[in-house]
Amino acid sequence: MTDETPTIFKGLAGVPVDFTAISKVNPDTNSLLYRGYPVQELASMCSYEEVAWLLWYGELPTRAELDGFMAEERASRALAPNVRRAIDDLPLSTHPMDVCRTAVSIIGANDPDAEDNAPEQNLRKAKHLFAQLPAIVAYDQRRRHGQGLVEPRADLDYSQNFLWMTFGEEADPAVVDAFRVSLVLYAEHSFNASTFTARVIASTLSDIYSAVTGAIGALKGPLHGGANEAVMHTFDEIGSADKAEAWLEEALARKAKIMGFGHRVYKNGDSRVPTMRTALEAMAAHYERPDMLELYEALETAMVSRKNIKPNLDYPAGPTYHLMGFDTETFTPIFVAARVVGWTAHVMEQLASNALIRPLSVYNGVDQRELPA
Ligand SMILES: CC(=O)SCCNC(=O)CCNC(=O)[C@H](O)C(C)(C)COP(=O)(O)OP(=O)(O)OC[C@H]1O[C@@H](n2cnc3c(N)ncnc32)[C@H](O)[C@@H]1OP(=O)(O)O
Ligand SMILES: O=C([O-])CC(=O)C(=O)O
Fold it and tell me: In the UniProt entry, which residues are flagged as the active site (predicted)?
């Protein structure tokens, strides 16, 4: 290494790469704003449909705009026959994130205007993906249980219908509310790895379906969205609260990363965790599962006292989805259904002021040399 070697910011940690007006993640105040509104207030007062509109358009919808959007969303929920066939053709062992990725690809292939990046076209596509993802996620969980597709119901809102299509029965209002809160909290988080992936793809002037497909791939990993699924595997492995401390000691001794803890930006706790934890508490009470909350608290207490590393949103979200009856493998696809709003908003923001994203690398391989004769 010479003095001229540029500083490398591994993982782009701490490097601002562009402006965004969509959300503000503030680790100093442990806060998160969507278009200026605190996420906790949106989670307590708004439907997921309203939050989606806010993230795309920058303002909350008027009553007439919301009514129009809800009617459009309800009319676009059913899967096209070739999307359904493609899901049916996938092995039952296919990871549900791969099912989502494949289904989004086919939805893109069905769109004759897939390559048209005009803002009104991309808004239309964003709304279509928003309406379609619950059917994909719900149907995939059902087919893994040997159950048939449940048709969407236009008299139910987005969150009610998602649960209806998954379980084939109307969910209790308390469950619908906890689910809606999780979607609002998961909808957007600035330049996280999957959103950045979507922006990189958009920056080449590729299409929005390709950007979302790539983002799904990035979200799948356990260091990002895949952590909500991994948290549940951890809970299954530990079994009960009294075993949490010993389990953690052993896991840390083998230098394992404890899933659902830590964050690249928040170092003093994730702004969304208190709200999601309240939703988990409500579900633990609703399903009479205090043991789940006890295990949650025991592992958190042990991790904070041992490493001073706090939980991220995936930590309370995983057990909440488990209590609702979702398969563990379905947790990250639910994150897809929520985050598709943030991804598509970022694709549109990227295109509105585009520059090809292409950083530099510093070569550290062998010097130029002659080919062997
Ligand atoms: C919605 C989301 O995507 S939120 C993130 C979901 N991901 C997870 O929950 C996976 C578990 N967490 C992690 O792997 C990390 O905390 C990340 C990837 C989220 C953030 O990582 P980074 O900002 O790169 O922090 P980094 O990995 O450098 O950690 C700093 C130190 O804390 C430790 N650390 C951070 N998170 C954890 C964890 N979950 N378990 C154990 N140790 C941890 C690291 O080992 C490292 O220690 P060292 O300095 O002794 O080597
Ligand atoms: O911001 C991040 O790096 C990860 C995260 O919490 C999210 O995407 O919600």
Answer: 263, 314
Cα 39 to ligand 2 centroid, rounded to whole Å:
14
ipTM of the complex: 0.98
CB of 300 within 6 A of ligand 1: the answer is no
Topology at the third CATH level for domain 227-323: Cytochrome p450-Terp; domain 2 (1.10.230)
Is the pTM for the entire model greater than 0.95? yes
Q: Is the CB of 248 inside a 6 Å radius of any atom of ligand 1?
A: no
Question: Mutual orientation of helices 244-253 and 290-307 as an angle, nearest 10°?
Answer: 40
Is domain 25-222+334-352 annotated with CATH 1.10.580.10? yes
pLDDT digits (tens, 9 = 90+) for 298-323: 999 999 999 999 999 999 999 999 99
Q: Does residue 189 have an active-site annotation? A: no
Instruction: Judge whether 263 counts as a catalytic residue.
Output: yes
Q: What is the pLDDT of residues 268-300, one digit of tens each?
A: 999 999 999 999 999 999 999 999 999 999 999
How many Å lie between the centroid of ligand 1 and the Cα of residue 262? 5
- Helix, strand, or coil (residue 90): coil
